[in-house]
């Protein structure tokens, strides 16, 4: 099962600069574990204690997985997953 995972700039150090990588898994949890086997350290930036990190948004085919089944959301061949960590900043 091939799933395209779009990687934000801030996490591309884990994917050797790649904007998108392929992964596999029946659920998001399995997909992130699969990514970890090739891109060491990336899973810890997305998942904390078996749940999506609070400030990481994940979209499955442009739909926010928090409104689906979260990290247990089922995946299908050809799906597209986008990871978007929240970024804050500005002047104080």
Automatic annotation (TrEMBL):
> Matching SUPFAM superfamilies, A to Z?
MoaD/ThiS
Pfam families, alphabetized: ThiS
CDD domains for the chain: Ubl_CysO_like (cd17074)
Task: Please name the InterPro entries in this protein's record.
Answer: Beta-grasp_dom_sf (IPR012675), Mopterin_synth/thiamin_S_b (IPR016155), Sulfur_Carrier/Prot_Modifier (IPR052045), ThiS/MoaD-like (IPR003749)
**Where does the source fall among the domains of life?**
Bacteria
Entries under PANTHER family matching the protein: SULFUR CARRIER PROTEIN CYSO, SULFUR CARRIER PROTEIN SLR0821-RELATED
- What protein name applies here? Molybdopterin synthase sulfur carrier subunit
The organism is: Streptomyces filamentosus (Streptomyces roseosporus)
């Amino acid at each position: 099962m091939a799933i395209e995972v779009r990687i934000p700039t801030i996490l591309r150090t884990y994917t050797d600069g790649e904007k998108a990588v392929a992964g596999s898994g029946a659920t998001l949890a399995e997909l992130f574990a699969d990514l970890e086997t090739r891109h060491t350290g990336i899973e810890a930036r997305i998942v904390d204690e078996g749940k999506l990190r609070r400030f990481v948004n994940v979209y499955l085919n442009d739909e926010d997985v928090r409104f689906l089944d979260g990290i247990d959301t089922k995946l299908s061949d050809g799906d597209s997953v986008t990871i978007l960590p929240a970024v804050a900043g500005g002047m104080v």
